[in-house]
Amino acid sequence: MVEKILVVCPHPDDGEFGAAGTIAKWTDEGKEVFYVICTNGDKGSSDPNMTSERLAKIRRQEQQAAADVLGVKEVIFLDYPDGGLEDTPQFRGDIVRLIRYFKPKVLLTSDPYRKYIWHRDHRITGRVALDAVFPYARDRLSYPEHEAAGLSPHKVEEIYCWSSDEPNVCIDISATFERKLKSLQCHISQVGGRGGRLEDRVRDRAAMMGKEKGVPLAEAFYHQVIP
Fold this sequence. Notes:
Elements: E1 4-9, H1 14-28, E2 32-39, H2 52-70, E3 74-80, H3 89-102, E4 106-110, H4 120-136, H5 144-148, E5 158-162, E6 169-172, H6 177-185, H7 188-191, H8 196-211, E7 218-225
Parallel strand pairs: 1-2, 1-4, 2-3, 4-5
Antiparallel strand pairs: 5-7, 6-7
């Protein structure tokens, strides 16, 4: 059976900044990766002529292009407003439903426990995604409407969180680093005009993460196997 991975992202581009090298490595290995983009990213612009409605459309297109570069099988857009996520039964239920639908072995998301300055959507997305993994997606009597729709409970086996203050695993992305860069360059509304500065920033961070593990370029995560 093909291993499935669900990547739960607060905004378009977060999956690429946090884990694109790892995602490309996994798809190259034949694993099926699915994206969930929780918000539409409609606030992420300093352009005085940009509107939220137009930006949301642009960022959806950019995200799909980036996912295609990485070999992501499908992208699901939940379209909550940027900056508007709340830890609600509805949002949690959306993630539980997708876990039960795709039945991933692994869930990858933003670390909700990063200290101090951290985008609120990142914090809430991580917390809701981890709560959805355990116990909600596992327990049949949680969100019983899913079972009525033919979706059975599912136990995710592993979680990975990017941007953790306490990473415990590094994944070598030397072979997929250029794909990571290419995927980030799809997000023109966010990185346009940075040119070599983007590559330098991303490469320096990957080199720093890899140094402790003795690999040229890496991404670091908090990883936990769920008993």
